[in-house]
Fold:
Amino acid sequence: SELQSLSSSYLLKSPVSSITCPRICHVLGQVMEETGDFSKYEEGLNYSATGLLKVFPSHFSELEAQSYARKPIKIASKAYANRYSNGNEASQDGWKYRGRGAIQLTFKSNYIQASNTLGYDFLLYPDDIGLPYWGTIVAANYWSITKENTLNISNSQRRYLNQLADNDDFNKIC
Structure:
């Protein structure tokens, strides 16, 4: 398929060029989990009040959950506010930089890192990460992070996913 061709082409030319069986297995497993078996490429955030309290218990009180329920823009803006270079709730950065693409890239700091590494302005065009072309390349880039290039990125990305995959450390990758 076109997507396989694009991802293979990028992976062979990228810092993740040392493709190993454990890396392939872990990347595919993570991408399948993040996309619901390749069925969604954008975080929905259309939670009920009960869902909000389950998924974001530290961000919503019971009263707030009732007020925010089924309002994805408001939910993302509050849940992701003031985290990893996102602005406050009013900035709506949480919505603008919500999870997208094959890896469900989230937070402005990760969009900045992807922009800097890939030479494309995802801050100006954040929706493009949800497209198959960029979503696949961004996912490969996300997995290529090393200890040397982790300044100002989220804790999840600091786990050096390729290194963990090489050790077949499923629990730390997830």
